[in-house]
Amino acid sequence: NAGVTQTPKFQVLKTGQSMTLQCAQDMNHNSMYWYRQDPGMGLRLIYYSASEGTTDKGEVPNGYNVSRLNKREFSLRLESAAPSQTSVYFCASSPLNEQFFGPGTRLTVL
Amino acid sequence: TQLLEQSPQFLSIQEGENLTVYCNSSSVFSSLQWYRQEPGEGPVLLVTVVTGGEVKKLKRLTFQFGDARKDSSLHITAAQPGDTGLYLCAGDDTGGFKTIFGAGTRLFVKA
């Protein structure tokens, strides 16, 4: 089992560019999550999906959109990147309360 | 809004020392999790505590859940350089589908 995989691992964007971060899990978990991690601020929830076909906003959803493509895949899209979105992005999946994280995507917006 | 406060924020100790880090809240959680995150990687689950007063041991790590299920502690005995990392506590949001994370305790163990 690969667990949770994320692509790409690193990305540099210019302000205004768009991109999609991909996430997939092979553990048959219903719930999936997108977080951003900034120094001194811990993990902040951007969006989550409690089950296939549903998505909900988390703590910091502005500037992001998500798609739960199927049970395995949950993507995060930045339509017009801003420097404030420079961060490390983690995808996670969960069978209940415990979360399993991917390796992260380090995004820099210039 | 439920919050989890972790202390201390940073801890630098010598190999062989003992330490305790804390996770506190004014809210009740049905369970709390502890994660360790190493540089360049995602957090990895260490343990879940569910019952008030519960104590769980994982080799040199001892986790305790407060009687009122509002706080938790992590005690490391005879710390080793391999224990270096960011320790995060997390609790389930009252909605059930979201998890609240503390800001973490960054531990550095010097050889």
Report on this model:
Chain A is an all-beta fold and 110 residues long. Helix content of chain A is 0%, strand content 51%. Chain A has no helices and 11 strands. In chain A, the strands form 2 sheets. In chain A, strands 2, 4, 5, 6, 9, 10 and 11 form a 7-stranded mixed beta sheet that branches. A 4-stranded antiparallel beta sheet of chain A has the order 1-3-8-7, with no helix packed on it. The radius of gyration of chain A is 13 Å and the shape is globular. In chain A, 35% of the residues are buried. By secondary structure, chain B is an all-beta fold. In chain B, the strands form 2 sheets. In chain B, strands 2, 4, 5, 9, 10 and 11 form a 6-stranded mixed beta sheet that branches. In chain B, a hairpin with a 2-residue loop joins strand 6 and strand 7. Chain B is globular. The mean pLDDT of chain B is 92. The chains are: A mainly beta (110), B mainly beta (111). The interface between A and B is medium-sized, with 25 and 22 residues.
